[in-house]
Amino acid sequence: MGYDLGTAALVASATKGGALMYERTSTGDIFPTFVTPAMARAKLNEVRAELQSLDRDIQPSAVPAQFKTEWGVFRDTYEAFYRDTIDNFFAINLGTKGTIEKAEEFQRQGLQWRALFEAQGGKPTAPPPAPPPPSPGLPEVVGKAEGIAKAVAVVAVVGGLVYLASMVKR
Hints:
About 70% of the residues lie in helices and about 0% in strands.
């Protein structure tokens, strides 16, 4: 049996009478976000510390071995991302916003692992970290603009074909 993080987090939340932690926003991130390399490094280190703390609780616990194995895969995946990114000039200096968003994605998944660990009877020693901001979805305006752009492209292609056909007949 694999651990479905989405379902597990909802089940863990529901069994404790809690509310869902994350909801997608409809507005999205439509304005440029200014982030610095220092902010990206800080987020990477913050997520790493949270996952290492949770790992120190999971490893000696009595949760099933399969849970520990699957958690280990997740933990190792973040560690690989961390090592590949922390000293990577391009990721830190040019892709700072993307780096932070990816780290926040790992952070959200870490919170889901924590909820699943607690649902299995685990007891994390550190207080739960504050959840990162919700993942921005595409704003509704962008979706409408995309549809309009597609319609304009189709009209342009059809118009171009009609024009070419009229040129061939001459």
